[in-house]
Structures are given as structure tokens and as C-alpha cells.
Amino acid sequence: MSRSAAAVVVAVVLALALPATYALAGGTSYEPSGSPNPCRARHWPETHGTSQVIQQLTLSAIAGTACNLGVSEEELTLAFASKSGGLGEFQRKHHISNSELDSAARAGINRAIDEGEHSNAINGFEATVLRLAAGAAPIDKLIQYVRQTLG
Amino acid sequence: VATLGLVVGMVLADSSVVILALPDILDRFNVAIDTVAWVLTIFNLTMAIAAVPAAYLSRRMPPALVCRAGLVVFGLASLGCALAPGFDWLLAFRVVQAIGGAAAACAALELLPAAAGSELRAIAVWAAAGAIGAAAGPAIGGALTQAISWSAVFLVQVPLAAVAFVLIPRSSVVVEAAKPDRPVVSANVALALVSAALTAALFLIVLLLINGWGHTPLQAAAIVTVMPVSAFAAYRVVPNLAPRAGAIAGAVLIAGGLAALGLLPGANWAWLIAPQVAIGAGLALAVGALTHEALAGRAPLAIHGGWSMAARHAGVCVGLLILTPIFTHDLRHQQKAAEFAGARLVINSSLSFTQKLQLGDALLHQITSGTVTHPPDLRPAFRPFASAPGIAPLEDAIQDEIEKAVTHAFSRSFLVAALLALLATVPIALQPRRA
Predict the structure, then answer these.
(1) How far is the C-alpha of B261 from the C-alpha of A18, rounded, in Å?
(2) Where are the alpha helices (DSSP H) in A1-151?
(3) Which residues of chain B have a CB within 8 Å of the CB of A58?
(4) What is this model's ipTM?
(5) Which residues of A touch B (CB under 8 A)?
(6) Residue B189 belongs to what H/E stretch?
């Protein structure tokens, strides 16, 4: 093999080996961790006191709403928390009407109550009262409440 | 020979020397990021347009005279850049600088055979000076920006141009105006593609180091020194190869180095060393061999040098044109990804609900109040929670997510650049063999 041919072979081997080494060292997965599926049932940690139960209910409700809207939990949280029209921007981006947001949020709250009941953080009576409240309460007011709480 | 090499190296370094000074220029003139990039683009665009006419000029008039005149224009325009009262003025002086530089570099090629002893040696010196100059540009610019200021990058060229002016060999010979040979299209196209690929290596690495990972310009300059050192070493160590083999080996090495940069496994400067070694060596091999293919045995030398210089700078413009939208899109996308990842970490942390809300608010404030030229400093957001359990690992985890996002934002641009380098092997392979 001539010197020139050998140089090309060495260059090709090096050019393949270098990115392969980087890929094996984790280069293909070195990126921000992806959002978990919000439709997967949320595991509630052990809760102590009403404030922790409310916190878990809120987080589960956001996950449930995100699942129904087909978006990530974090995107919805940031949209709710935004002080500068982030929720409207979010709705426009994903083409979500107020009524769609309303029904998704209602379903999300019901899922949160189910999860709270399954984890024994709330009892059957509390769950029933909360379900009745969620069915009757004006969701836009609840969303406003969550936005105020988050923001 | 050294003086003429200095002229070529200085002019071609100017296509990349300003990259590390861009954040300071942005601050000085208060312009947008995509506007400040014109300081780079306008120089390369003018060089691409002016190189061939400048080469014809150095055939019509004594090359020593053209080289001196080019150096005067280049030197005065460099002074103008350093003292520019406004951003428009800076751009205007960059245009003049490129015209003067093109004239000086093309005329230098006309003078080199007599000084170097042979045409082949002249081509080798011209190619090496240009390649090492371009590779060393960011490092030199970074060191000057941090040690003195952005204007020093331009000011330092004034005495260099003056010294070269004095030392240029005195010759009033006008070369015969014979009908020029046709330019070697395949070699020049390959040179343009290699240059487009190198845009990523020369520009994006420093952006990643300074704007992404928060290194100072001086640290970045030290890290990117690996590339010109590797290029220089490759010129000295690699034996003379057949030009086609050298060009293919070089383009493949550049592609490999860029692909590795597209697959960085961590946000640590050490990961940039091996790819830079490959790219530096590839740059020396490919640019040397392709310049040889474009120039050797072609008359007149200056005009073919003009074509190859035009190809290189057109390649840089094409590289900027292709890579900038990819990079800006990915950066925006990764900013969102980092925001979501950060929000998730805060939501799932062991902090109390109130603390989560306060921390989220503080983090958002730090991100939005930071400057566009530097990564956000999140530490102040964590300070009020210093005693909260689990805050230190949370801070590390969020920082880690941001570094991952920033690094990943560059991946696709590096991979596209690697493809451009690989594409350069096509015209090289299709090039007809010389007798």
C-alpha cells in the first residue's frame, strides 16, 4: 500500500473512531432529560398535613390536565405560572379553546382526586366532596386560583 | 518568504480573528446578535467578491506595488475599524479592509515564487500561511480582546501591516499578461465546501466555550489554540502525500472531528481537544492539497490564487448562511427544553410548595435578566434557600440540565458541518487525474 493510500485509510479509521468513542461515552444521549408521560399514574409521596395534600392534588391535576391536552406537565405549569400572558400564548400555540381547557382541567382534577384516594392521602368522604366541588365549581376561577398560587 | 507569509496569514486570519471580540462589539455598539455577525460576514463576502479582481490587478501592475498599496489600505482600514464611531462605520471599514487584504494576499502570491525559490514551494507557503492564519485567528483575537479590548484585535494589525510594507521585496517587474488558464473548478468547489465546514469549527467552538459554557475569551483562546498547533504540526510531520489523497484524508479528518463535536458527551473543554486535533490536521492536509491542486501548473499564479481565495471566503459565507439558522433554531428549542427540565426538577424537589414557587420565580428572573452574550448565573436564585435540605443537589441538577441543553444546541450544526466536509470529497474524487 502506498504512503498516500495508507494516509487515507488512517484518516478514515480516525474519523470513524473519534465520533464512535464520543457516542459510546454518552454523546448520543447528552441532552436535557425529556418530559415524562403526564398520562402515567402519578406516585404520591407520603403526605403530612393539608398543605402537602393540596400540593400533591395541584401537581396531579396539572399532570392530568396536561395528559388530556397532549402537552407536557412542565409546559402547562410554566404557562399557568406566567405573569405575562403565557397561558393565552400557550393556548394559541396548541390551538386550545377555553372550553377545551375547561374540560381538560376538570378531568385532571378528577384524576388527582382518584390518585389522592388511592394513595390514602384523602379518604372516601373527602374524595366525594371534592369530586362534587370539582363538578360544580367554575373551572376558570380554579385556573385563576392555580395561576395566582403558581405566579 | 516570512514577510509574504505574514501578509497572507494576517489577511486570512482576519476572516476569523474577530469572532471572540463579537460579544464586546455587541456591547459597545448595542446591536442585535444577528446584526453583529455582519462584522464577520461582510469581510468574508467582500473577500469572496474582491479576490479575483484584485488578482487581475496584481497582473496589470507591479505586484510589489499592489501588495504595498493593499497593505496601506488594509492597515488604514484596520485603524478605522478600531476607532469606528458607529457600527455602520465598522462595517464600512471591514469592507475596505477586505479589499486591501485581497489585493495584498494575491500580490504576495505573485511575489512568492521568486522569494521561495520555486512555484511549488511558493504555493505550499501561501497555503500553509492561509490555513494556519485562519485557524489561529480566534485564539489571537480572544487573547487580545481579554488582555486589552476588542479594538486591539484591529489595532495590532496596523504595525504588522507597516512592518510588512517595509519588508516587501522591491520589484517593479510587471508580469506578462498571458491568457490565463481556466480555474480548476473541482478543487475550488472542494475548497469552498471545506471552508464552509470549517466555519463551524472556527466560529461555533468559541461560541460554545464563551456563550454556552461561560469561559472567558482568554480561556477560550487557550483552548482553541489546539487547532492551529495541530495544523502546524501536521504541516511539519505528515509526509508529502499525493494531493488527491491529502485532500481526501484532510476532508475526512475534518468530518470526523466535527461529527465528534456533534456528539459531545459532556460540557467540559477537555472533550474539545481530540476533535480539534483532527480538524487542525485535516485543515492543514485538505487546504494545502486543494490549494496545490487549484494552483500548481496553472498560470498566472495570482489569478488562480484569487480564485482559491474567493472559493474559501465564499465557502465561509455559505457555511454561515447554512449553519446560522440551524443553530439559532436549535438554541431556541434547547432553551425551552432546559426551562422545562428545570421546572420539572423544581416541581419534583423536596422543597416546600412555597419555596418551590419562590425559587421558580427567582430562577425565571435570573434567566430573563441575564445578558444575551453570557449564560445566566443562577447562583443568586439559590442563595435564599441555602439552608433548605436538598438545595445543593437541585442546583447541580439544574446547572447540569442547562449545560446539556446548551451543548446539545450546537450538535446539529456540527453534524451538518461534518456532512459539508464529507461532501467535499465528491469533487475531489471526480477531479480528473493530472498527467
Answers:
(1) 10
(2) 3-22, 50-69, 73-81, 86-94, 98-118, 124-136, 139-150
(3) 353
(4) 0.84
(5) 2-5, 7-8, 10-12, 14-19, 21-23, 25-28, 30-33, 35-36, 51-52, 54-55, 58-59, 72-75, 77-78, 81, 149-151
(6) helix B185-199
Q: What's the distance, CA B159 to chain centroid?
A: 23
The predicted structure's pLDDT at residue B360: 77
Q: Determine contact, residues B241/A4, Cβ cutoff 8 Å.
A: yes
B203 to B19, B128, B134, B222: CA distances (angstroms): 6, 20, 11, 15
Given this model, what pLDDT does residue A19 score?
Answer: 97
Mean pLDDT of A29-52: 82
Residues of A in contact with B334 (CB under 8 A): 31-32
Q: Report the candidate in B409, B415, B263, B398 with the shortest Cα–Cα distance to residue B335.
A: B409
Distance CA B322, CA B140 (A): 26
Distance between CA A112 and CA B428 in Å, rounded?
A: 64
Give yes or no for B246 touching A (CB within 8 A).
yes
Written as nine digits, the cell of B224 is 482553541
Inter-chain touch A78–B250, beta carbons under 8 Å: no
Grid cell in block for residue B82:
478600531
Position of cell 475531489? B428
Q: How far is CA B263 from CA A33, A147, B72, B402, B409, in A?
A: 16, 39, 45, 17, 11
B344 interface with A at CB cutoff 8 Å: yes
- Residue A143 is predicted with a pLDDT of 66
Mutate to test the interface with B, among A9, A10, A18 (most CBs of B within 10 A): A18
Joined together, the cell numbers standing for residue B54 give 484584485
Query: pLDDT at residue B418 above 90?
Result: yes
B86–chain A Cβ distance below 8 A for any pair: no
Band (pLDDT 50/70/90 cuts) for residue B177 is low
Peptide bond into A32 cis (omega under 30): no
A48: its cell numbers: 403530612
Q: pLDDT of B63-119, one tens digit each? A: 888 899 999 999 999 999 999 999 999 999 999 999 999 999 888 888 888 777 788
Q: Which amino acid is at B165?
A: F
SS (H, E, C) B328-340: HHHHHHHHHHHHH
Rounded Cα–Cα distance for residues B164 and B73 (Å): 13
